Amino acid sequence: MTQSISTTCVQGGYRPGNAEPRQIPIYQNTTWKYDTSEHMGKLFDLEESGYFYTRLANPTNDYVAAKIAELEGGAAAMLTSSGQAANFFAVFNIAGAGDHVVSSASIYGGTYNLLAHTMRRMGVECTFVDPNCTDAELEAAFRPNTKCVFGETIANPALTVLDIERFAAAAHAHGVPLIVDNTFPTPILCRPIEWGADIVTHSTTKYMDGHGATVGGVIVDSGKFDWTAHADKFPGLTQPDESYHGVVYTERFGLAGAYITKATAQIMRDLGSIQAPQNAFLINMGLESLHLRMAQHAKNGLAVARHLAAHPKVAWVRYPGLEGDAEYERVRKYLPEGACGVVSFGVAGGRAAAETFMANLKLAQIATHVADARTCVLHPANTTHRQMNDEELAAAGISPDLVRLSCGIEAAEDLIADLDQALAAV
Ligand SMILES: *Cc1c(COP(=O)(O)O)cnc(C)c1O
Questions:
Q1: In this structure, are strands 402-406 and 342-347 parallel, antiparallel, or unpaired?
Q2: Sheet holding 199-203, edge to edge
Q3: Tell me: the pLDDT tens digits for 109-122?
Q4: Residue 425: left (phi > 0), alpha (psi -120 to 50), or beta?
Q5: Cβ contacts of residue 62 below 8 Å, gap of 6+?
Q6: CATH T-level fold of 7-285
Q7: Top-level class of domain 290-424
Q8: 182 lines ligand 1 (CB under 6 A)
Q9: Whose CA is nearest to atom 6 of ligand 1?
Q10: pLDDT category, 144, cuts 50, 70, 90?
Q11: Closest-CA residue to 142 (of 178, 101, 199, 172)
């Protein structure tokens, strides 16, 4: 029986047995007790599965990771303490010093810094490409040491829509996986694995939590990428791991388990950044209503974008789900049920006019946050992207006057009234 994604939001991941807790229990413990050292030794050697230390695994986290894997149509998943940790681990699990990554230039500012600067200091180089580059330009970005391709389904904040099939085909032609950050659509609006992506990441801080309560991340593996077919590129998965008595992840755990087991047993073990079980519990509360909230976010996003597009004090509107938008056709293909609640636009009159507008909003509140039940608004060039110079900003698709409006799940007419009165003050 194939189950609707709405039902998976509510009931996926955790299926209690007779007389077991109806809601996911929070395992608020660091350690587990065992009768013998031999038993614990087997866990340390990955010979048996079981819990021994929350930095590596905790049942609460595993229930929530399992639900997200089901939602994305993946084989396995791992929660992380933040979206930044998720993207870092997703790449670092298969790329190290001397390796190279191809990434869309239109990505979240934190991920851009991670790939352009911090991972470079670790010896991993990144070539950024315009997500709408020509085939020849995309081809030219690859090197013999390229280990993955990275992009965002709907980029934060530029709202460019990734042609997932095209990027997946290019990655696969070079024997490497496509990693897609699917934070903005969530699996309710787009499931990248169905379009050829191999690994999906999220900042669960955004729509999955949805209530502005917890920072978190997740990595989902499709289990479909054949690491053994490109064994020379991925020795970490296909050759013995000396830190685990020579376990070969692809042999011991198969294609469905190798990538997430390595990320857990090796990267999480050594770098930390596990999600707190309390936070995993809160994310699950968000997931239970994700399908309802995403429908309302998408509805409000479209209504607000249409209204702004017709407003005389608005210079331009970017909402990929808006009829006539340059990427409208791509939205119809990849996001037929809506393009989330984030709208960007420019207030006529430039930076100063935008600042007056921001200061006059009442319902929409200034916050370094998006994808929340409550409408929030941000000026990226002055905040999240301020480390970038004008050239980098332009490459990421951000103009200095860009206002990012994240439509919550309030009534659309109230949001529109608030925008109108703030625009009237300009
Ligand atoms: C917010 C965000 C991140 C970073 O997530 P944190 O949870 O803040 O660490 C990564 N990718 C995208 C698309 C985001 O919006």
A1: antiparallel
A2: 76-80, 217-221, 199-203, 178-181, 146-152, 100-104, 125-129
A3: 899 999 999 999 99
A4: alpha
A5: none
A6: Aspartate Aminotransferase; domain 2 (3.40.640)
A7: alpha beta
A8: no
A9: 83
A10: very high
A11: 101
Report the pLDDT averaged over residues 331-344. Answer: 97
In contact, 21 and 60? CB cutoff 8 Å: no
Give per-residue pLDDT as tens, 164-201: 999 999 999 999 999 999 999 999 999 999 999 999 99
The confidence score (pLDDT) of residue 1 equals 56
* Kind and range of the H or E run holding 414: helix 412-424
Q: Whose CA is nearest to atom 8 of ligand 1?
A: 83
Atom of ligand 1 nearest to the CA of 184: 13
CB of 89 closer than 6 A to ligand 1? no
Give the nearest ligand 1 atom to 217 CA: 7
Report phi then psi at 373, rounded to 5: -60, -30
What φ, ψ does residue 316 adopt, rounded to 5°? -160, 155
- Please tell me the distance from the alpha carbon of residue 293 to that of residue 258, in angstroms, as a whole number: 34
Look up the pTM and report it: 0.96
